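To the team - FE2/S2 (inorganic) cluster complex, inputs and output below.
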Amino acid sequence: MENGKVESKGELEDILESFSRLANGLIPAFHAIQNRYGYIPKERLPEIARAFNLSQADVYGVLTFYHDFRLEPVGRHVVSVCRAEACQANGSAAVIDHLRRKLGVDFGETTADEEVTLLPTYCFGNCACGPSVAVDGKLYGRMSAERVERILRGMGASA
Ligand code: FES
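Output:
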């Protein structure tokens, strides 16, 4: 994933052209766009709607129904923390507190240096091994404040 602003118009058009040929290609197109840019650019929704012959309201509705799609640019690294019940019962609050304090951001925010975005997730399907955290798409189970601190240090994101 190359996070950042969508610069190349042709590249997005290529993604839309290939996925709009598929039956039910809208969600795979969202995944492809987000994998490429780190988010789905809101300003490109009219173009996406046209490619799939849908209204902008329909496209926006699908996009916002799924929690995994992002409408804002993210930092170079994305840390997603499960906030669902099983992970809460296994102590995710301590992991979340540590991340908020160390990064100086809340959920949905990116650090001032644009290095790390902290996002909530509602179950990775890794409930038996919670608390669960994903860093740049790699899933970690049995997370603790100490383990997440080591991960942050490895990313150069902790003092
Ligand atoms: S509740 Fe956290 S992974 Fe399922």
